């Protein structure tokens, strides 16, 4: 009996992300050097691992409440207030999620109806559109390539006017994956001044907030708290991708509804991971700063090398990605370019098209890799270009 055509029809409209598809495609190449995934090459800090071990020994192996343990929610609220000057009541305005990915899914599924529109600055991380599509809503992309990958208030307002009441939400992701670009306080405030005029949700994915190199990270919740669903987590700041701890911060009226979706998606996050998260957020409140300084050195190295090789690069001011325009005399189909690079130079980077049609002709390099690997990567890229 063939049941393959009896799925939710929206499932047929989505696919595994091109990032993962491409990474798997090139992984079988012998001696391949991969700068593909956004996976920190640091290990989780020892004191956090110790807290996880203690939680196992103390039999923290049962369900927590749907929102997560009170001590981790309190710690998350403390972390956010100390770092970004935004206050949330941990009793009613904080949810512990299974990474930022589940936080995104729970938030979007809670707010979207069929036919709603969601505005996204492009290029953008490809993890939002599939959830929007599953909700039978429609993503609308705002091209930022002409403005250095920064969403301007003018472009934002133009789209809000054109699409009118159909717009349910705007998604922001900064520092950005894939570009590494982030926003100054003045830029965030300018966007907030536009958004507060419209009855829209703002889903602000700030998972890379601790990896901001130049200015202090500014959360848009500082200006439009009542509209904002703020997403963060420990994957990037504390090299805890496998622990799967994320957070949703939102006004209690919004949190009360989002928790319903969260419950039926996952029940609750891992209790052991939550106990470790308390230590990460309190004792390890500045753990990310050590990693950030190393990432800064790698960024500067890659930026200098890639620019010298003829790539046009918007210098990243956050995250750990470098987004580069393929030189005009080379293949502009980013998938073809990256496949050829992998096969001939044994160097894997992500084709820009994985981040939308606006990103065609670009490549993304992750510098969440050792300096030794980055130096070797530049040798391979240089040799490839010389041929």
Overview of the molecule:
This protein is an alpha/beta fold and 387 residues long. The chain folds into 2 domains: 134 residues, Aspartate Aminotransferase, domain 1; 238 residues, Type I PLP-dependent aspartate aminotransferase-like (Major domain) (Aspartate Aminotransferase, domain 2). The chain contains 12 helices and 13 strands. The strands form 3 sheets. The protein has a 7-stranded mixed sheet, with helices on both faces. A 4-stranded antiparallel sheet has the order 9-10-13-12. Strands 1-11 form a two-stranded parallel ribbon.
How are the elements arranged and paired?
Blueprint: H1 18-27, E1 33-34, H2 46-57, H3 70-84, E2 94-97, H4 99-111, E3 117-122, H5 129-134, E4 138-143, H6 153-163, E5 167-173, H7 185-195, E6 201-205, E7 228-233, E8 246-249, H8 252-266, H9 271-281, H10 287-308, E9 312-313, E10 321-325, H11 334-345, E11 347-348, E12 350-351, E13 362-366, H12 371-386
Parallel strand pairs: 1-11, 3-4, 3-5, 5-6, 6-7
Antiparallel strand pairs: 2-8, 7-8, 9-10, 10-13, 12-13
Helix pairs in contact: 2-9, 3-9, 4-8
Protein name: Aminotransferase
Domain Aminotransferase class I/classII large: 31-381
EC number: 2.6.1.-
Give a concise summary:
With 387 residues, this protein is of the alpha/beta class.
């Amino acid at each position: 009996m063939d049941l393959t055509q009896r799925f939710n029809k929206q499932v047929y409209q989505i696919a595994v992300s091109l990032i993962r598809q491409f990474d798997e495609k090139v992984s079988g190449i012998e001696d391949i050097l991969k700068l593909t995934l956004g996976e920190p090459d640091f290990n989780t800090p020892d004191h956090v691992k110790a807290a996880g071990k203690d939680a196992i020994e103390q039999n923290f192996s049962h369900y927590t409440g749907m929102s997560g343990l009170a001590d981790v929610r309190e710690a998350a609220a403390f972390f956010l207030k100390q770092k970004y000057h935004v206050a949330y009541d941990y009793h009613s305005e904080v949810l512990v999620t299974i990474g930022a990915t589940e936080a995104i899914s729970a938030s979007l599924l809670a707010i979207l109806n069929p036919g709603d529109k969601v505005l996204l600055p492009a290029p953008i991380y490809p993890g939002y559109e599939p959830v929007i599509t599953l909700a039978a809503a429609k993503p609308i992309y705002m091209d930022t390539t002409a403005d250095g990958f920064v969403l301007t208030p003018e472009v934002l307002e133009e789209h809000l006017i054109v699409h009118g009441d159909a717009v349910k939400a705007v998604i922001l992701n900064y520092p950005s994956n894939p570009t590494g670009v982030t926003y100054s306080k003045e830029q965030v405030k300018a966007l907030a001044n536009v958004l507060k005029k419209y009855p829209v949700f703002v889903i602000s994915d700030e998972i890379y907030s601790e990896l901001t190199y130049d200015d202090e990270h500014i959360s848009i919740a500082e200006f439009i708290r009542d509209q904002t669903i703020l997403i963060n987590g420990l994957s990037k700041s504390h090299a805890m991708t496998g622990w799967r701890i994320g957070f949703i911060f939102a006004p209690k009226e919004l949190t009360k509804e989002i928790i319903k979706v969260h419950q039926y998606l996952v029940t609750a996050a891992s209790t052991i991971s939550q106990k470790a998260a308390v230590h990460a957020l309190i004792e390890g409140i500045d753990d990310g700063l050590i990693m950030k300084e190393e990432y800064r050195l790698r960024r500067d190295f890659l930026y200098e090398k890639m620019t010298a090789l003829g790539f046009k690069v918007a210098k990243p001011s956050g995250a750990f990605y470098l987004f580069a325009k393929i030189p005009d005399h080379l293949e502009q189909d980013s998938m073809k370019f990256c496949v050829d690079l992998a096969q001939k130079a044994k160097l894997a980077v992500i084709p820009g098209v994985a981040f939308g049609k606006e990103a065609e002709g670009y490549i993304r390099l992750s510098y969440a890799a050792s300096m030794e690997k980055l130096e070797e990567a530049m040798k391979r890229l240089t040799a490839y270009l010389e041929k």
